[in-house]
Design a protein that fits this description.
alpha+beta; 5 helices; about 130 residues; three-stranded antiparallel beta sheet
Length: about 130
């Protein structure tokens, strides 16, 4: 996905979730010739760990998720967090490491067999 496409995706009014996200979306790049200085981009391992935590947060998604669906969710997370998206293959490998090196899991998504990730629920914390 090019930077222009990412900018268009992040500024799509149908994807807008809050005024707070609008401020981070407005800092995204206007075109390919503009520098990305305004984007905060953690490294791939940090980005993957934060992405998994974002998925496990209340209102997130857990359980088996097809890789192609997770890639779309990742791009939405990048828009929301103001990250520069990294190549999906790098992020997918880092997510697998962040999940303890889980083996590839296959399932069916939209009637087609697909590889995916099993995102575990967060551990419960008992408050006494």
């Amino acid at each position: 996905m090019t930077r222009v496409q990412l900018h268009a995706r992040c500024n799509d009014p149908k994807r807008s979730t809050s005024d707070q996200n609008e401020a981070s979306r407005s800092t995204l790049i206007q075109n390919d010739s503009t520098a990305c200085a305004s984007l905060h981009s953690p490294g791939r391992d940090d980005q993957a760990a934060e992405f998994v935590a974002w998925l496990q947060a209340p209102g997130g998604r857990t359980g088996w998720i097809a890789s192609r669906d997770l890639q779309e969710i990742y791009l939405d997370a990048c828009c929301e967090r103001g990250w520069h998206p990294l190549p999906w293959r790098c992020i997918a490998q880092a997510i697998r490491r962040a999940l303890g090196g889980q083996p590839r899991r296959y399932g069916y998504s939209r009637g087609v067999r697909a590889c995916g990730f099993d995102i575990p629920r967060p551990a419960l914390r008992l408050v006494v």
